[in-house]
TrEMBL record:
ATP binds at G134, T135, N136, G137, K138, T139, S140. It comes from Leucobacter komagatae. This is UDP-N-acetylmuramyl-tripeptide synthetase. SUPFAM superfamilies: MurD-like peptide ligases, catalytic domain (SSF53623), MurD-like peptide ligases, peptide-binding domain (SSF53244), MurE/MurF N-terminal domain (SSF63418). UDP-N-acetyl-alpha-D-muramoyl-L-alanyl-D-glutamate binds at S47, S203, R211. It is found in: Cytoplasm. The gene is murE.
Length: 519
């Protein structure tokens, strides 16, 4: 079941009813006169998502003040609006008198987590809760956790960049980490549906912007750290601190850290919560050690050894050493949460644990001797390096790598993305991704400059991604691999403010059929 297209968020079907007076006992806001007995049943910060009985939170944003949408929130059935002093003035100036307006000192976002947890009754969850942060692979770890939880007999729910999912109830995600109001609504629905294990992807942005407030994770993890999001953080130190903030007692009871990187080693030392460590590099000191024992394009097998003689064998049906690391990290997180992982070890060893990660190294071809085509979401130098190294280890054929880069995002990573692509692939096709407000030819030129510096791959520029897909297929022979990095699960291309329909997976499927390579 996919949630109705109208639904922007997944919410409980039978929400609890809370009065404003009750909320005001815990949350410092001023109640509008005579409104203490007003009942609210939900919270949202988006006027387009308001449902009957919601407390609409009018947030000041970069482009709008949410309070300027108060009239529309009231029309959709909001019971009250909570905002700051500026928002109150805006609502008054607009003559909105249908809603009790509650005013907070400071930024209302800072209260949103606690407020939402109280409205939805999610302040103390019985389910085991897992959070994962790092630069690459968070979504993949979330899906590994969910698969292992299910294998261990728990009922999983998840929130990732790709989707929010509770069993067959699913919506496509907007943000990697939902705003706190959306997150707590989702958690309340998970509780309703008997979910007993929850995996949540936590972006650096989410931690600083109060999006995970009101959630206390049983176990959090940090997997790796490399360049991304410098448009926001300016330098790597600030970016690191933004992620490291998850390892604090207010957010989590304990953590797992991959200590392959200097950033991981540093976090393990400085963490304010107890951590256990995982190393995938031979000879590095850690509590758990992972070794890859075999790998092909169809998957990777590994051995994981831990404290007190713990020993597991596993197989993940997706290629790449890093996928073994993602699975091992998920396994250790379950163990740290007190879930007996021996229960899942057999299934893992025999490759019986199904793992489908939407748009992450997702194979569109059906295996076999022809060229194989994978669509991926990687858009950082770290992800490119991991994927191309992995492909180099499992492919004898030619590697055709196609990608573009985000406009209006970290521009300093483009040359390095180009260089890694040029060094690791045989043929590189550079096309457009989401140019946004930037001239696309400028983005492609920066990627091409980087790729040229590697002096290795054949380089081709084909702006139109649809044409680039077909070109890649025409260049591939049986045994070759085409990897299309960037769009993953997405179904749009963002060009100059417009969201144009574009699904790389559908496009590739169609092109393979045209070429007679897919039934
Ligand atoms: C820079 C940033 O954090 N922007 C976020 C911010 O937008 P904004 O301040 O521009 O909001 P605004 O448009 O001025 O609107 C202000 C308020 O009015 C509301 N509004 C607006 C229009 C309307 O019709 N009705 C309405 O109620 C909005 O919901 C908002 O509450 O608040 C919005 C509402 O929650 C977010 O969607 C938006 O995230 C944008 C899309 C974004 O790009 N965020 C990035 C930085 C981000 O968070 N990325 C991370 C990491 C991804 C990764 O790992 O690669 C993530 O977790 O996704
Ligand atoms: N452990 C890992 N180390 C390095 N690269 C990885 C790892 N796991 C996955 N990747 C690569 O990074 C890409 C993005 O993976 P994934 O979507 O799981 O990461 P993410 O951290 O959720 O990214 P985002 O925050 O942008 O959604 C993958 O498709 C793969 O190419």
């Amino acid at each position: 079941m996919t949630s109705s297209h109208e639904d922007l968020t997944i919410r409980p079907q039978h929400p609890q009813r809370v009065t404003l007076a009750n909320l005001a006992e815990h949350i410092p806001f001023v109640i509008a006169e005579g409104s203490g007995e007003v009942i609210v049943t939900g919270v949202t910060i988006d006027s387009r998502d308001v449902r009957q009985g919601d407390l609409y939170v009018g947030l000041p944003g970069a482009r709008h003040h949410g309070a300027s949408f108060a009239a529309s929130a009231a029309e959709r059935g909001a019971a009250a609006m909570l905002t700051d002093a500026a928002g109150k003035d805006l609502a008054a100036a607009a003559g909105v008198d249908a809603l009790p307006v509650l005013v907070v000192d400071g930024h209302p976002r800072a209260l949103l987590g606690e407020l939402s947890a109280r409205v939805y009754g999610t302040d103390a969850l019985a389910a085991k809760t897992f959070g994962i942060t790092g630069t690459n692979g968070k979504t993949s770890v979330v899906y590994c956790i969910a698969a292992l939880l299910e294998a261990a007999g728990l009922r999983p729910g998840l929130s990732s960049t790709a989707e929010r999912r509770i069993g067959d109830e699913v919506i496509v995600s907007n943000l990697t980490s939902p705003e706190a109001s959306e997150l707590h609504g989702l958690l309340a629905r998970m509780v309703e549906r008997g979910v007993t294990g929850i995996a949540i992807e936590v972006s650096a942005q989410a931690i600083g912007r109060h999006r995970i407030d009101g959630v206390h994770f049983d176990v959090v993890a940090f997997n790796n750290f490399s360049q991304d999001h410098l448009e926001e953080y300016g330098d790597m130190e600030t970016y690191f601190q933004a992620k490291a903030a998850l390892f604090a007692p207010e957010h989590a009871a304990r953590g797992v850290v991959v200590v392959d990187s200097p950033a991981g080693q540093r976090l393990a030392k400085q963490s304010a919560i107890p951590v256990t460590t995982l190393a995938t590099e031979y000879g590095r000191s850690a509590d758990w050690h992972l070794a890859v024992t075999a790998q092909t394009l169809d998957g990777v097998s590994f051995v994981l050894q831990g404290p007190a003689g713990a020993h597991f064998r596993g197989r993940v049906p997706v290629f790449g050493r890093f996928m073994a690391e993602n699975a091992a990290l998920a396994l250790i997180m379950l163990h740290e949460a007190g879930i007996p992982i021996e229960q899942v070890a057999d299934g893992l060893e025999n490759g019986l644990i199904p793992l489908h990660i939407p748009g992450r190294l997702e194979e569109i071809t059906a295996g076999g001797p022809g060229p194989r085509f994978f669509v991926d979401y990687g858009h950082t130098p770290g992800a490119f390096e991991a994927m191309l190294d992995a492909l180099g280890e499992v492919t004898d054929g030619k590697i055709i790598f196609m990608f573009g880069a985000d406009g209006d995002r970290d521009t300093t990573k483009r040359a390095e993305m180009g260089r890694i692509a040029g060094a690791g692939a045989d043929t590189v096709i550079i096309c457009d991704y989401h140019p946004r407000s930037e001239p696309p030819e400028q983005i492609r030129a920066q990627l091409l400059d980087g790729a040229r510096a590697a002096r290795h791959a054949e380089l081709i520029e084909e702006a139109d991604p649809r044409a680039a897909v077909r070109l890649a297929i025409s260049l591939a022979e049986p045994g070759d691999v085409i990897l299309y990095a960037g769009p993953g699960h997405e179904d749009y291309q963002e060009v100059a403010g417009a969201y144009l329909p574009y699904s790389a997976r559908d496009e590739v499927r169609g092109a393979l059929r045209e070429a007679g390579l897919l039934a």
